[in-house]
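> call design_seq(struct)
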């Protein structure tokens, strides 16, 4: 079985993207990337230690600001980090590499996500924060392929996991990472399609988008089924 190999940087990109989609100000997108990076790294600590790290980060934020925080800011900041930590653990539970630094650089139509990983490498990934609704046919075509491929993979893996040695540990790891990325990408597609549905005036377009939002649920269920089978084989 051949699967695309995803780097830690590409995993982080998929995890981070939904949180900057349709965010107008570059500075706000940059702050979102920073929060995602912090949450990613906090998630690598044992559950019992995570709250201490969130508290420590808040103290650093507080110290960097001369003015007293506005009411509710501390609670909101910590809740957002907890949510991101939980999401990272849900989407990428088997990815344990830290990300020392992640920067978002404005570069015209696309932003550039520059990620330094714990292995000492730096990777740059183009990010489109404002996808245009004219791209809907391309997304539909892509989702149709994912829908078919993932449904087929469920059946194939159900058969394969009954056969000892059907795939190697390396292949299982590659497949697991690929489908974790797919789950994260589905969160981004959910965000894109929801915004497009809510902003398109034509009822017919809204109906089409609504249909594909339903398809996302189907793909999500099949993706989770694939991951469950892969985990059971470990």
């Amino acid at each position: 079985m051949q699967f695309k190999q995803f780097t830690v940087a590409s995993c982080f990109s998929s995890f981070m993207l939904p949180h900057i989609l349709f965010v107008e100000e570059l500075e706000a997108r940059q702050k979102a990337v920073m929060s995602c990076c912090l949450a990613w790294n906090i998630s690598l600590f044992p559950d019992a230690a995570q709250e201490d790290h969130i508290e420590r980060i808040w103290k650093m934020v507080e110290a960097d600001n001369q003015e007293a925080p506005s009411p509710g800011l501390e609670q909101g900041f910590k809740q957002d980090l907890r949510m991101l930590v939980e999401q990272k653990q849900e989407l990428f539970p088997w990815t344990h590499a830290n990300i020392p630094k992640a920067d978002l650089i404005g570069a015209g139509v696309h932003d550039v996500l520059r990620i330094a990983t714990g292995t000492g490498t730096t990777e740059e990934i183009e990010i489109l924060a404002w996808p245009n609704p004219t791209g809907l046919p391309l997304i539909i075509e892509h989702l149709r392929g994912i829908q078919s491929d993932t449904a087929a993979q469920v059946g194939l893996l159900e058969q394969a996991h009954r056969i000892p040695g059907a795939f190697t540990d390396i292949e299982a790891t590659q497949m697991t990472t690929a489908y974790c990325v797919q789950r994260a990408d589905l969160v981004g597609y959910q965000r894109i399609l929801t915004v497009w549905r809510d902003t398109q005036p034509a009822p017919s377009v809204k109906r089409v988008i609504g249909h594909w939002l339903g398809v996302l649920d189907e793909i999500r269920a099949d993706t989770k089924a694939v991951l469950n089978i892969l985990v059971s084989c470990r």
